[in-house]
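Listing 4. Sequential folding, example run.
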Amino acid sequence: MIRWLIVIFLALLLVNGLSRWLERFGLGRLPGDFRFKLFGREMFLPIASTVLLSMVAALIAKFV
């Protein structure tokens, strides 16, 4: 189980580091991605982008 936690942590770091680059392609600005301010802080919920990236990852895993 600790191996999966490390993999998830590294994947989140990778996506976080690539987020500015991915925004150039429209990820983070899809219709299901929510940005709102709450208590003076900007919150971001990338629901549609997460679904899209999961589908891409599943297709890559299927063919590899």
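-- end of first protein; second protein begins --
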Amino acid sequence: MQELLFTKDYKNNEALRESFFELATNTFGLNFENWYQKGYWSERYIPFSFVEGDQVVANVSVNLLEFIINGEKKQAIQIGTVMTHPEYRKRGLSASLMNKVLEEYENKYDFMYLFANDTVLDFYPKFGFKPVEEHLFSMDFTPSQFEHTGIRKLNVNQADDLRLIHKFASERMPVSQRFGTDCTQGILMYYCLNVFSDDIYYLENENAIAIYKKENNHMDIFDIISIQEVNIQDILPKLAGIDTENITFHFTPDYEGIDVKSTISHDGLFVRTKGENLYPVQVKHPITSIA
């Protein structure tokens, strides 16, 4: 067995990149290849890994982004793709990589955070992360007879549509000034390619992109991507149509003119703060920027 070596930010190393992709697929079912080939892996996504030869055996990835909290920008680091090959587990590799990340970015963030699954809830508090409660926002909706026009479904397999999505992702306003994220186009494009590829619509009159699903009398809105401010009361009737009675927002809506309620949502969010920074209460991290 060769000695394990530490390496990071190796997207241009074909052998390591392919091994990283394979480990992500085997561990989480993630498919990074298409996302990489289309150029959406930017300098803001940095894997920290242990390798043996050309094989990535453990990883902790860093995503550099910004929070928007009550209109003010804060530097944030999101940890993701924490994984270890089965044959290399129980050797403290993830802990060692976490310590390397903390050392590297010690004075370079206001918030560091991650979303953990139920199997590792005791792991992250050892590194100063604290569990944080999230809220999910919803509203009752009165169906209308508004004509379902001016909406075009986008196809990520069509080059023009994909360019349009990427333009909006790159130039977008944060989905909320109360609590939103910025510099997250790489994460959003992953969701568009792999998670919501069949749920992306362009609203021509509003010049906005909506990612949403409808089932029975309920609608889930995962993101509204716009380059300028939008009037939500123009958008909702077009998306909802005549049969929607309830809408759930998978971000923190701060639109004027709508009445939303919130319920507690336990999504495994852990946050580490620096200085006097406090993570906001009663908010929902935008789902399309969760790494």
